[in-house]
Amino acid sequence: MGYHICTGSPCLNYDTVFNDTSYICVDHSVTESHIYRIHVFDSTYDVSELTPPFGNVVLSAEVPRCSTVVSASWTPYRGMPGGVYHYRLLARLEPYDSTYAPYFVTDSVGPYSFSFEIPDGTTRVWLKVQVIGYGGDPLVSQSNIVSVERLTVDTAAFLFINKVEYDSLEWQNILTFDIDTAFHSGSYILYRSIDGRPWETIATPVFSTPPFRYIDNKISVYDSLHCYMLAVLDACGLNPHYSNTNCVVVPTPPPPTWFFPNVVVVGDDVNGSFLPRLQGLKGDLYELFIYNRQGLLVFRTEDPDAGWTPDADIPQGAYAYSLRCRFNNNTVKVFTGTVLVIK
């Protein structure tokens, strides 16, 4: 007479089919697990034994926020005909793949889960599971198709380098920015290119409140064109947004010069100090030593603006000096000599 279809465990009433051997459950979701069993009844409504359970495979997947790892899991297949030889997880990565490719194969006892890492730039991953029967039989069943999006908290950003100025007194570049910090909370990266060479990261500045400025005091005045670009990353440290490029030409300075006084007059307002006069000094290396005739150190400084001013107790006579310093052309020089102290 017909077939009685039931679902779940225990097997509950679902529907009855007369004069047909197929039934479509149009109101069932493929993302839910369903187990079906049937038995046949005759004209006197005697029924046969229930068939073995038959169920669909339900796949689920996720990519945690800021992660590059896709985690997939699925329910085991239950059904007819025959058993399961293996499961095959297939994936298609946008925008890289045009078709699905196998990523994982496991046998009938599982595991029914797999995690894999996706490359940077992947925006969406499509997944499905195929159930393969014994003996190379064709596909026994296929799961629902799952689409997962990589969440990277990509937000809008406004970055603009307004001006790059060269400070000839301090040998440094001063950068000013226009930034709307309300757009994002990510990390900033400042890049620099010198004379057309590749970009390099020179700083990871923190910008929270105006004025937005940065001072690049690690430049060489013997490099001409200095170009800068600012980037900000999203909250996952991904998806950099770039500003405009702004450049400044650093004029080539004159060659270094130096002059050392050879006489110091104790108490004199003009000639009472020993202070070398240096042009083109870089300033990151400066060591001045002065010794008496016995070789004892009487003065030492690392400040280019600090000279030796002998007091009234200093004996008159010749004193030896030694100066080690670096100039803006990155040359290191050592100067030695004597200075005469007169009272």
What secondary-structure arrangement, pairings included, does this model have?
Elements lengths: L1 E6 L4 E7 L16 E7 L12 E2 L3 E4 L6 E6 L11 E9 L6 E7 L5 E5 L6 E9 L6 E4 L3 E4 L9 E9 L4 E8 L8 E7 L5 E4 L9 E4 L8 E8 L8 E9 L7 E3 L3 E3 L11 E3 L1 E11 L5 E5 L15 E11 L4 E11 L1
Parallel strand pairs: 21-26
Antiparallel strand pairs: 1-2, 1-3, 3-4, 5-6, 6-9, 7-8, 7-10, 10-11, 10-12, 13-14, 14-17, 15-16, 15-18, 18-19, 20-22, 23-24, 23-25, 25-26
Structure commentary:
The protein is an all-beta fold. The chain has four domains: 2-54, no CATH class; 63-149, Immunoglobulins (Immunoglobulin-like); 159-249, Immunoglobulins (Immunoglobulin-like, Sandwich); 257-342, Immunoglobulin-like (Sandwich), CATH 2.60.40. It is 0% helix and 48% strand. It contains no helices and 26 strands. It has strands at 2-7, 12-18, 35-41, 54-55, 59-62, 69-74, 86-94, 101-107, 113-117, 124-132, 139-142, 146-149, 159-167, 172-179, 188-194, 200-203, 213-216, 225-232, 241-249, 257-259, 263-265, 277-279, 281-291, 297-301, 317-327, 332-342. Strands 7, 8, 10, 11 and 12 form a five-stranded antiparallel sheet that branches. It has a five-stranded mixed sheet with strand order 21-26-25-23-24, with no helix packed on it. A four-stranded antiparallel sheet has the order 2-1-3-4, with no helix packed on it. A hairpin with a 4-residue loop joins strand 1 and strand 2 (12-18). It is rod-shaped and about 140 Å long. The mean pLDDT is 89.
